[in-house]
């Protein structure tokens, strides 16, 4: 039984989500390989080889994988999986993994098991459905289990390994989708998915200027990542990648501060596994208080500056 | 150019779902059903492309029980020209849906298929990508902007780090994200008109597709509830609790 983890990386290093995915893989068995598809991705490959428990790193370092487009990477994965006979193929349930892995599953004619949060056995997994309001235990009858992993449900793998690194041949470049632009949010703050503390703002912030003026000093003080509700993103206060929730990012930090967020089920789906939740909202009936460990019923524009001063 | 829009009938997003006592699933009897919100966005986008003269016909497709007809009528009230129902009581999983849709695409020969990125019941986020794979077509998932050319389409995608723009040759598969558009409300005259639009029904067997599930649900349970917290009086008390009780500062 050999398990393959598809690494998410930026060629130079691994994304944090890959580390959680390796931990999930190690719960399935001890023979865990990591595949890196990229261009000039030696740095990511070396980082993968250093992860404790990884036995081998396969690297396809070639131009077709420079942008990690779904069509080229999926075609490569299908070839690699068919040639090597893996029992399980895992990727993080991030926009990267969600984009590519279903394509792989369909080409292999197997189901994908999305966003698992627990592993019961080699063929049985737990996954949330209905925005996390129910947990389904599902058993797969496919010969290869193709799985995306909810990263918040598994710890990050640690260093201490020394796996062998093996170069593999690239496939022919498919002339399908082409990346013609990227507008990545630049931030010196920690990644939302990996942050210990998250400060999140909702429609109650009133504007993008308010969001920045009021919440950034708090995030600075706490060394926190910044998040938002859908309403704040839709209203243009912050970029799309700030959205926490059922259809945004799933987070589980040590501390989540929800400021001016009502707590719709779609938002709760993305943050209710946080260790400690603080809610600041002027409406005592706001549903966010039902999941908050500490609730402060107050006007955020008065309270948040006080909080910054008190820290 | 013909556009195909697959739509799923799901529990309305406002409904607080309940897990059945026997752990066999979620209570669906007497629960309000609606079109998956991402699919409304997909229908809206296709209809706007038609209104802009970029598409000639919008065909909505749904796979599932007889009542999916209502969902198809909703799509036609938004502006889809006709509907196709693949009728079955079977438990349909994304791979099976993708195979059914592939068979419909083979028949209908659309240049573009626009799906939702995710059904809010199974939260699978798979079908569009699987369909693209089965067709051997390019894909652009999580779209927040779509611009159609004669033989290509440019799509801006919402990704974890921000935005990414792709150029794809047609035919192609697109899945919608929340910011793509704001779906219109169907007006009463359009709801009436939709009743007269063509709706074809066929069975999975007519399409030669085996829809047998690959995943068996062993049980469905409620997640652990968070225990109720406390209301703090002021900022000073909040900081004190976070430091000394929760020990997270
Ligand atoms: C298909 C679908 C997917 C969705 N996915 C997501 C998702 O992934 N993530 C997500 O977040 N939502 C999602 N939503 C939207 C969700 O249903 C809610 O609409 C959204 O979360 C509401 O955002 P909000 O809490 O910021 O706004 P509101 O519900 O408007 O709440 C604003 C809150 O701010 C408080 N407030 C206002 N002024 C102040 C003040 N001065 N001081 C203190 N408090 C104040 C108010 O009391 C109120 O509680 C989705 C919806 C759909 C249909
Ligand atoms: N039974 C169905 N009938 C028609 N379209 C579907 C069906 N199931 C899923 N889809 C489409 O596939 C998208 C993604 O669904 P899923 O992969 O289940 O999250 C939905 O938003 C729909 O566009």
Automatic annotation (TrEMBL), chain A:
Instruction: Please verify whether the record's keywords include Iron-sulfur.
Output: no
Listed PROSITE patterns: ETF_ALPHA
Recall the GO molecular function terms of this protein's record: electron transfer activity; flavin adenine dinucleotide binding
GO biological process annotations for this chain's record? fatty acid beta-oxidation using acyl-CoA dehydrogenase
| Residues annotated to bind FAD | 203, 229-230, 243-247, 260-267, 281
Where's the Electron transfer flavoprotein alpha/beta-subunit N-terminal domain? Answer: 3-183
Keyword list (alphabetical) reads:
Electron transport, FAD, Flavoprotein, Transport
InterPro entries (UniProt xref): DHS-like_NAD/FAD-binding_dom (IPR029035), ETF_a/b_N (IPR014730), ETF_a/FixB (IPR001308), ETF_alpha_N (IPR033947), ETF_asu_C (IPR014731), ETF_asu_C_CS (IPR018206), Rossmann-like_a/b/a_fold (IPR014729)
Write down how the cofactor binds this protein.
Answer: Binds 1 FAD per dimer.
Q: Known SUPFAM superfamilies for this protein?
A: Adenine nucleotide alpha hydrolases-like (SSF52402), DHS-like NAD/FAD-binding domain (SSF52467)
Q: Which Pfam families match?
A: ETF (PF01012), ETF_alpha (PF00766)
Cofactor(s) in the UniProt record: FAD
- Per its database record, what is this protein's job? The electron transfer flavoprotein serves as a specific electron acceptor for other dehydrogenases. It transfers the electrons to the main respiratory chain via ETF-ubiquinone oxidoreductase (ETF dehydrogenase).
- State whether it acts alone or in a complex, and with which partners, per the record: Heterodimer of an alpha and a beta subunit.
State the family named in the UniProt similarity comment for this chain.
Answer: Belongs to the ETF alpha-subunit/FixB family.
* Name used for this protein in its record: Electron transfer flavoprotein subunit alpha
The organism's lineage is: Bacteria, Pseudomonadati, Pseudomonadota, Betaproteobacteria, Rhodocyclales
Automatic annotation (TrEMBL), chain B:
- Drop me one GO molecular function for this one: electron transfer activity
Q: Name one Pfam family in it.
A: ETF
UniProt keyword list = Electron transport, Transport
Question: Where does the Electron transfer flavoprotein alpha/beta-subunit N-terminal domain start and stop, copy by copy?
Answer: 23-211
Biological processes per GO annotation: carboxylic acid catabolic process
Instruction: Name the Gene3D superfamilies on file.
Output: HUPs
Q: Where are the transmembrane segments?
A: none
Matching entries from SMART domains are given as: ETF
Looking up PROSITE patterns in the UniProt record yields: ETF_BETA
Q: Which cofactor does it need?
A: AMP
Q: Its quaternary structure?
A: Heterodimer of an alpha and a beta subunit.
What does the record give as the function of this protein? The electron transfer flavoprotein serves as a specific electron acceptor for other dehydrogenases. It transfers the electrons to the main respiratory chain via ETF-ubiquinone oxidoreductase (ETF dehydrogenase).
Q: Which family does it belong to?
A: Belongs to the ETF beta-subunit/FixA family.
Name of the protein in question: Electron transfer flavoprotein subunit beta
Its source organism is Zoogloea oleivorans
């Amino acid at each position: 039984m050999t398990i393959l983890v598809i690494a998410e990386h930026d060629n130079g290093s691994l994304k944090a989500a890959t580390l959680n995915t390796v931990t999930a893989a190690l719960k399935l068995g001890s023979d865990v390989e990591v595949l890196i598809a990229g261009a000039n991705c030696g740095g990511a490959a070396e980082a993968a080889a250093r992860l404790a428990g990884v036995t081998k790193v396969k690297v396809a370092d070639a131009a077709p994988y420079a942008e990690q487009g779904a069509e080229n990477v999926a075609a490569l994965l299908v070839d690699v999986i068919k040639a090597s006979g893996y029992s399980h193929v895992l990727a993080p349930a991030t926009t990267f993994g969600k984009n590519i892995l279903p394509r792989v599953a369909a080409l292999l004619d197997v189901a994908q098991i999305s966003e698992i949060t627990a592993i019961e056995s080699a063929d049985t997994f737990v996954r949330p459905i209905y925005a996390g309001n129910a947990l389904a235990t599902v058993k797969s009858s496919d010969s290869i289990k193709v799985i995306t992993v909810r990263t918040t449900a598994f710890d990050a793998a640690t260093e201490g390994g020394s796996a062998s690194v093996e170069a593999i041949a690239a496939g022919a470049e498919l002339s399908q989708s082409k990346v013609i632009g990227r507008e990545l949010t630049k931030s010196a703050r920690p990644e939302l998915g990996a942050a210990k503390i998250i400060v999140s703002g909702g429609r109650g912030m009133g504007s993008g200027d308010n969001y920045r003026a009021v919440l950034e000093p708090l995030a600075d003080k706490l060394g926190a990542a910044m998040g938002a509700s859908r309403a704040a993103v839709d209203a243009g206060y912050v970029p799309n990648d700030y959205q926490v929730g059922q259809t945004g990012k799933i987070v589980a930090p040590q501390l989540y501060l929800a400021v001016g967020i009502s707590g719709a089920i779609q938002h709760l789906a993305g943050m209710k596994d946080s260790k400690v939740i603080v809610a600041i909202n002027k409406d005592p009936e706001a549903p966010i208080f039902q999941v908050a460990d500490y609730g402060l019923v107050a006007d955020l524009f008065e309270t948040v500056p006080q909080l910054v001063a008190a820290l | 150019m013909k556009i195909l829009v697959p739509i799923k009938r799901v529990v309305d997003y406002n409904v607080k779902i309940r897990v059945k006592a026997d752990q066999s699933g979620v209570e669906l009897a007497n629960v309000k059903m609606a079109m998956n919100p991402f699919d409304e966005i997909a229908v809206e986008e296709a209809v706007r492309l038609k209104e802009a003269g970029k598409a000639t016909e919008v065909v909505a497709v749904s796979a599932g029980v007889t009542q999916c007809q209502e969902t198809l009528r909703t799509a036609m009230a938004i502006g889809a020209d006709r509907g196709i129902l693949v009728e079955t009581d079977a438990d349909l999983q994304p791979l099976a849906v993708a195979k059914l849709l592939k068979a419909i695409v083979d028949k209908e020969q659309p240049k573009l298929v626009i799906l939702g990125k995710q059904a809010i019941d199974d939260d699978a986020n798979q079908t569009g990508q699987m369909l693209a794979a089965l067709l051997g077509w390019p894909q652009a998932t999580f779209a927040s902007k779509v611009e159609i050319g004669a033989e290509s389409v440019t799509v801006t995608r919402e990704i974890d780090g921000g935005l990414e723009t792709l150029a794809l040759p047609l035919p192609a598969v697109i899945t919608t994200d929340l910011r793509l558009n704001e779906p219109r409300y169907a007006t009463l005259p359009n709801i009436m008109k939709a009743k007269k639009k063509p709706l074809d029904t066929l069975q999975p067997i007519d399409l030669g597709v085996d829809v047998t599930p690959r995943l068996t649900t062993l049980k469905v349970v409620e997640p652990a509830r968070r225990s109720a917290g406390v209301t703090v009086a002021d900022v000073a008390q909040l900081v004190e609790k976070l430091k000394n009780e929760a020990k997270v500062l």
